[in-house]
Amino acid sequence: MRGYSVAASASRKMIKAVVFLACLIPLGMLTYGLLTNGLGANPVKAIIHGTGVWTLRLLLLTLLVTPLRRIFGWAWPIAVRRMLGLFAFFYALLHLFTYLLLDQSFDWQAVVHDVVKRPFITAGMLAFTLMVPLAATSTNAMVRRLGRNWKRLHRLAYVIPALGVLHYYWLVKADVRAPLAYGAVLAMLLGLRLWWRYRSRVSGRPAAVGARVVMPAARRG
């Protein structure tokens, strides 16, 4: 039994290492493209777009964890869910920092004007603002300290990717196929949760859905 436990622990560590390295690949590709002039005529726009898209993708991957567990019985995605959420916040930080530094040169008056006058900037800023408390309360210690309020706070995990899709949709204006595709994936993931919750109410059993989606606390082991 002890040998099985050791093997399972080693397997989890291996999975986490692989996912960690995989999450760094987009950053590596952007860095390589920047150093080799491979980001096209407007590298700043390419970096902003790349970091934004990967933020949204990672947010959707965190929402995918529960369906994978419920449909296929896979437990390993739970071990990397927190990591995926924190990487989503990391790419969101890069996305925002690139916009502030390289696009706006920290011209705060211009930034405020963008937030007020451009709806896609407003949606993006709101999404990032909501991610901050989730990242700050992603530890086991904060789960214990906040108690039931932690779960209420982390229901924002369902709102943030919706704002991300809206941000992307309003940004592209003309060719909206990509944001609509992400929106369809989000609708499916949220729809599954609503269906399971409805089924649980009809059957009288508690739903095993939970709100630990974007930045859930790490589990022991």
Any chance you could write out the topology, listing elements then pairs?
Elements: H1 2-35, H2 43-72, H3 76-103, H4 108-117, H5 119-136, H6 140-146, H7 148-153, H8 159-172, H9 177-203
Helix pairs in contact: 1-2, 1-3, 2-3, 2-8, 2-9, 3-5, 4-5, 5-8, 8-9
- Share in helix: over 70%
User: Largest beta sheet, briefly?
Assistant: none
Mean pLDDT score, rounded? Answer: 88
**DSSP helix count?**
9
Spatial shape:
globular
Strand content: under 5%
**N-to-C CA distance:** 15 Å
Radius of gyration (CA) equals 19 Å
Structural class: mainly alpha
Number of strands: 0
Element order: H for helix, E for strand = HHHHHHHHH
Q: What number of domains? A: 1
Note poorly predicted spans.
Answer: 209-214, 216-221
Summarize the structure.
This protein has 221 residues and is an all-alpha fold. It is 79% helix and 0% strand.
Overview features:
79% helix; 0% strand; 9 helices
